[in-house]
Write a structure and sequence with these properties.
CATH superfamily of the largest domain: HUPs
Radius of gyration: 20 Å
Number of domains: 2
Shape: elongated
Oligomer: single chain
CATH class of the largest domain: Alpha Beta
Helix content: 40-55%
Largest sheet: 11 strands, mixed
């Protein structure tokens, strides 16, 4: 892992995500990219100063963002960090930034449903999880230490999920956790427990030397079952493959990803990735360093 992206609005929950990003960056020797969004006119950096002065509110936003970013740099002075801003749609630019800077992991703070009305609650986090092809780690609460001792990987364990599972293993192996494979049996009409356990075998074989246990957990709905199982074993992290998103799959499982993102207090890692990542394009780059503008 070389590059970690943190979209931030400088809220408390976004700062929790930054804290985790800095800890992960230290563990992996990675660089942290802070990205914020400002309501500025397009081609702001090319405007004459007199034209810029007409946008006093935008200038105030820039100054405030610059102050916040400088404070973050002071706080994380030992971290390799770059601070950036985008002057257009945040969701669109997160996707572009991932390609431009070869981002390996996005970390987002979120209050989930019922939280404060910050930039990254609910729908924005869901949209990033839904549309950007990159693993996303959602942080709800401050972590006293970065220790994923017990990790749940929830799936239907189809063979097409194996590449996503390998991406997860590459991320988690430095923590040497106890991995729990869990399939939620939410209906009596689903395949048998034995069939489910057999489907887990190719995944379990990839885990050594990490300890791995397989479970079929009966519950009346998938998202609730994952939450209940995580409490039962005292999990530190929930991981879900979000890589295959054809319409039928989204109806059956995609909505559960969003429910878990919203309602679970634990860190949640959704695994997605660009299989043939295109080279960053030099055209139409709309993400700029704040320091260049000020």
């Amino acid at each position: 892992m070389k590059n970690i992206l943190v979209p931030t609005d400088f809220s408390e929950c976004a700062d929790h995500a930054t804290d985790v990003a800095v800890l992960l960056a230290a563990r992996f020797g990675a660089k942290v990219h802070l990205l914020t969004s400002l309501p500025l006119p397009y081609r702001w950096g090319e405007m004459p100063e007199k034209e810029q002065a007409k946008y006093k509110m935008a200038l105030d936003d820039i100054r405030q963002a610059a102050w916040f970013l400088k404070e973050r740099r002071k706080k994380y002075s030992d971290a390799r960090m770059t601070t950036n801003w985008t002057d257009s749609d945040l969701l669109k630019n997160v996707g572009e930034y991932v390609h431009q800077h070869k981002i390996d992991l996005i970390i987002m703070g979120s209050h989930g449903l019922g939280g404060k009305n910050d930039l990254f609650i609910g729908s924005t986090t869901q949209k990033v999880v839904r549309t950007v092809h990159c693993p996303v780690l959602i942080i709800k609460n401050p972590l006293e230490k970065l220790d994923f001792g017990k990790v749940i990987f929830a799936s239907d364990f189809q063979t097409e999920e194996l590449p996503a599972f390998e991406v997860f293993l590459d991320f988690i192996k430095s923590f040497s956790p106890e991995i729990h494979l869990v399939a939620i049996r939410a209906s009596a009409f689903q395949t048998s427990d034995k069939t489910m356990r057999d489907a887990m075998l190719p995944f379990k074989k990839l885990c050594p030397p990490m300890l791995c246990k397989a479970h079929v957990f009966k519950y009346f709905d998938v998202s609730g079952g994952i939450q209940a199982f995580s409490k039962k074993i005292g999990a530190d992290l929930i991981v879900i493959s979000n890589h295959h998103r054809h319409p039928l799959k989204r109806m059956l499982f995609g909505s559960n990803v969003e429910l878990i993102v919203n309602y679970v207090d634990l860190p949640v890692l959704t695994v997605d990735f660009e299989e043939n990542k295109p080279e960053p394009s030099s055209k139409n780059k709309r993400t700029r360093l704040v320091d260049v503008v000020l």
